[in-house]
Amino acid sequence: MTNPSISFIGGGNMAHSLIGGLIADGWPTDRIHVTDTNPEPLTHLAERFGVATGSDNGAAAGQADVIVLAVKPQAMRTVAGDIAAAVQARRPLVISIAAGIRSADLDRWLGDNNAIVRCMPNTPALVQSGATALFANARVGDTQRDLAENILRAVGLTLWLDDEQLMDAVTALSGSGPAYFFLIMEALQAAGVQLGLPEQTARLLTLQTAFGAAKMTLESDEDAATLRQRVTSPGGTTERALQVLDDGGLRELIARALAAARDRSRELADQLGN
Q1: Hey, which residues does 93 pair with through a beta bridge?
Q2: Contact present, 88 and 58 (Cβ < 8 Å)
Q3: Domains plus CATH for the chain?
Q4: Cα 121 to the chain's mean position, in Å?
Q5: Angle, alpha carbons 210-134-45 (nearest 5°)
Q6: For position 3, what pLDDT does the model report?
Q7: Which DSSP letter does residue 165 get?
Q8: What CA–CA distance (Å, rounded) separates 157 from 105?
Q9: Which of 192, 171, 172 has its CA nearest to residue 97?
Q10: Helices 142-153 and 13-24, packing angle to 10 deg
């Protein structure tokens, strides 16, 4: 299918990021439509990208080869009801980027037997550096899988899951993950200030160090553990600092945090699916 038409239901930050990435990759603006209940993001999207906008979800769904559901999880059931008739009539590929909405529940709200790809992007997608896990239900064909991957790849890395239950682990690791790194950067900056560094100096050193460590890991054939060992000289300053972190149970604390996030993801999916 050449340049299929895409309707975004919801024009918030993630939709904005995806649209920007698609257009940067050469997707024609006249094949993208966006709806939202708030006119402000629609005005911004129309002015910046030249895409068609509106407020009629059903009409947008009725003209789409692909529907990207980019609304808040709490609104998904209502939105699905609004577009169900159009989806049943046209049978587009439906891509959901709403956290905690299981594909079976979405399929039921849309009238059953729909091709659905469930995605879990994270906020670095806003700067085209996201990590997105995708799961396709049994109705999704190979061409549709490729199409979904191409759309989400416009904002970063994409990985497929064979088991939808793993989406809760993805939510815990990469979905919530940016906040963990923000917290660590926040703590490093504060500690640097406590050691006497000017705040702006501590901030810039923290950010560049985090960026450099991530870049080294991405560009290296070695894993993070090996890289850590290479920069840890016996008896040196790094070894002393890492020993404090190990003694404080950092690894166990991170494992507990991710397990708690995974469990909460399951709870929310149960609540939203009822």
Answers
A1: 66, 115
A2: no
A3: 6-169 (3.40.50.720), 175-268 (1.10.3730.10)
A4: 1
A5: 75
A6: 81
A7: G
A8: 26
A9: 171
A10: 100
pLDDT at position 10:
96
Q: Residue 96: what are its φ and ψ, rounded to 5°? A: -110, 130
- Classify the C-alpha dihedral 127-92-10-59 as positive or negative: positive
Tens place of pLDDT per residue across the chain (274 aa): 578 999 999 999 999 999 999 999 999 999 999 999 999 999 999 999 999 999 999 999 999 999 999 999 999 999 999 999 999 999 999 999 998 999 999 999 999 999 999 999 999 999 999 999 999 999 999 999 999 999 999 999 999 999 999 999 999 999 999 999 999 999 999 999 999 999 999 999 999 999 999 999 999 999 999 999 999 999 999 999 999 999 999 999 999 999 999 999 999 999 998 7
Q: Are 107 and 113 in contact (CB under 8 A)?
A: yes
Token digits for 158? 């994409």
Please report, as a single letter, which amino acid is at residue 21.
Answer: G
At 35, is the secondary structure helix, strand, or coil?
Answer: strand
Nearest to 123 by CA among 94, 156, 101: 156
CA angle 63, 66, 72 (to 5 degrees): 105
Structure tokens that stand for 243 in this block: 């020993």
Q: With CA atoms as reference, report the closest residue to 214 among 257, 135, 157, 150.
A: 157
At 274 the pLDDT is 78
Tell me how far apart the terminal alpha carbons of the chain are, to the nearest angstrom: 36
List, in sequence order, every residue forming a beta bridge with 66; answer none if it has no partner: 6, 93
d(CA 34, CA 67): 10
Give the C-alpha separation, 186 to 180, whole Å. Answer: 10
Distances (CA, A) of 74 to 55, 99, 156, 164: 19, 10, 26, 20
* Beta carbons within 8 Å of 223's beta carbon, 6+ residues apart: none
